[in-house]
Design a protein that fits this description.
The protein is mainly α. It is built from 22 helices and no strands. Helix 6 packs antiparallel against helix 14 and helix 14 runs parallel beside helix 16. It is globular, with a radius of gyration of 23 Å. The relative contact order is 0.15.
Length: 550
């Protein structure tokens, strides 16, 4: 089935845009003079982008806000074993559902699909805010993840739908800047609510913010007339969602998270339940790829879309870069709060250099690529800067000065910002119009699923190394008490030699996470060298492709 909506840029990994245009000029497709896609301009463009940025701000805040709310939630329900799920539930559902949202935007009206994703997010916020028990919080966070992924997927697609090709790199860069600003400000806002009011307000606050956003979507989100859903029956749409593939991917992520949550912390790695969940994770993952192969064009991750080197290398680059990014976002505040005894708000302020230089790198990337159309050189520079930044973060210790932990953030933040948006632009730019929705879903899956994988791994590395270090340096200290104590409370609960031992164990665990980040950053350098060095199609060619697709 061929979609009727020109969902993105021109060309693909196997045929050049120029050849595609030539085929159409040879008589395969003819268009009346003056026909072509219509793009938003002026006030209409401003209102659409404002709506997208506000919805992105809303859902991205929630990604980071949970970090400082978890201690308050565990105090309310006394379910420490569930603490890891409060953060990971969002990423698990988000990662598993990202490709499905690509199908939803392909076969349903864009405005309806986008509004539905926002409503899902708000419903999840209500469930989490009013939760009578720990399980309800996890369910609410999962629903939030489902909605947040749809909102983020739709935001990137709508930018492609309503803007001229030459403006897309800058606007996608600006959108990525809004996303990162919101993600980093989340822990600061969460800390303020948790300390000053209640952790429940981390979720209730979404309602007064979400209501106006729903109104903005209804009033101002106008999609160009040439963007139409692909024709399909409801039965075909359901089959296209690939529910078997979704179920297998979701099950594999849950099994991995359980294994890493238990192993070495609440259960021994040799216990049967830990081994069983690891085996099931492998089984479900293999089964997922088999099902995707059997599903063919109906797969939520059509494997044929990953065949071009331009696509699979950028998908891998996107996956690893975001894994590193999330590790630093989550564990740098832990370093500030535990090692330096800073409050959640102060720790958030000390991450502002990372925030500012990420935004700068993102804007520089969008502007330079929009001008030169080159991508791969900036991905390589991004990977090198990111590796240098993580290396400096790894060398921090208990006595590091403010200048010592601000400098690495500048280098790392600019490096990540420089390369973060390029994979999405590359995959969209070299996808055929009918495949852009699916390709966008795959790329957003790489972003979300990297967090679903790397954060449990990082937590396992941190907790296991911390407990091992504590056992060897201070066996008299109750390990359960250390685990139950939040990062910001360590310096209040422990004193004297016990505090010194606990801080040393915390630092050892954090260094293990930064080691993981450093190795992953170095891997992005190698991946960048494999990415094809091709320019994005020229503006004229891209616009002609979209005109022909109408």
């Amino acid at each position: 089935m061929e979609a009727s909506s020109p969902a993105g840029l021109a060309g693909n990994g196997e045929h050049s845009a120029t050849n595609s245009i030539q085929e159409k000029q040879d008589g395969i497709v003819a268009l009346p003079a003056g026909d072509g896609p219509e793009y938003a301009t002026g006030l209409q463009m401003f209102l659409i982008m404002f709506t997208i940025f506000m919805s992105t701000l809303l859902v991205a805040l929630e990604i980071g806000i949970i970090a400082t709310a978890i201690p308050g939630i565990t105090d309310s329900f006394h379910q420490l074993d569930d603490a890891g799920w409060y953060g990971s539930a969002t990423f698990i559902l988000g990662g598993a559902s990202s490709p499905m949202w690509g199908k939803v935007f392909k076969y349903l009206k864009v405005k309806f699909a986008y509004l539905t994703s926002v409503v899902f997010f708000l419903v999840g916020s209500i469930v989490a805010a009013a939760a009578p028990n720990s399980t309800a919080v996890i369910i609410g966070r999962a629903i939030q993840g489902l909605g947040a992924t749809g909102t983020l997927s739709g935001s990137v697609l709508i930018i492609n739908y309503v803007t001229q090709p030459k403006r897309r790199p800058v606007l996608i860069g600006s959108w990525m800047g809004v996303f990162m600003v919101s993600t980093i400000l989340g822990p600061v806002i969460g800390g303020a609510f948790t300390s000053g009011v209640s952790w429940r307000w981390c979720f209730w606050i979404n309602l007064p913010l979400g209501g106006p956003i729903v109104a903005l979507v209804l009033l101002f989100l106008q999609v160009p007339k040439h963007i139409k859903p692909a024709p399909a029956t409801w039965k075909e749409i359901i089959l296209q969602l690939d529910l078997p593939g979704f179920s297998l991917l979701l099950a594999s992520l849950i099994c991995l998270t359980l294994a890493l949550q238990w192993g070495g912390q609440t259960k021994a790695w040799s216990e049967g339940s830990v081994i069983a969940t690891l085996v099931l994770w492998i089984f479900f993952t293999i089964s997922f790829f088999i099902v995707e192969w059997l599903q063919g064009a109906r797969a939520m991750v059509p494997l044929k879309l990953l065949r071009p080197r331009m696509t699979w290398t950028n998908a891998l680059y996107c996956y690893i870069l975001n894994a590193v990014d999330f590790q630093i976002i989550f564990y740098l505040p832990i370093y500030f709060q535990s090692i330096h005894g800073q409050s959640a708000i102060t720790g958030g302020v000390n991450t502002l250099p990372f925030l500012a230089f990420f935004a700068l790198g993102s804007m520089v990337s969008g502007a330079v690529i929009g001008k030169t159309r080159h991508m791969q050189p900036y991905q390589l520079i991004s990977a090198l800067l990111m590796t240098a930044g993580t290396a400096l973060l790894y060398t921090m210790d208990i006595n590091s000065s403010q200048a010592r932990y601000i400098g690495p953030q500048v280098l790392f933040g600019f490096g990540v910002g420089l390369g973060s948006q390029i994979p999405m632009m590359a995959v969209q730019g070299f996808s055929t119009p009918e495949n852009v929705a699916n390709s966008t879903g795959i790329m957003l899956m790489c972003q979300a699923i990297s967090a679903a994988y790397c954060l449990p791994v990082a937590q396992s590395l941190f907790a296991n190394r911390m407990l091992q270090t504590l056992k060897s340096t201070a066996p008299n200290i109750d390990a359960v008490k250390v685990i139950n104590t939040g990062a910001s409370e360590i310096q209040h609960v422990f004193k004297g030699e016990d505090l010194t031992a606990v801080l040393g164990a915390y630092m050892a665990g954090i260094k293990d996470v930064f080691t993981f980040s450093l190795a992953s950053s170095a891997l992005t350098v190698l991946i960048a060298l494999v990415i094809p060095s091709r320019k994005l199609p020229d503006h004229d060619i891209m616009e002609t492709e979209e005109k022909v697709a109408v």
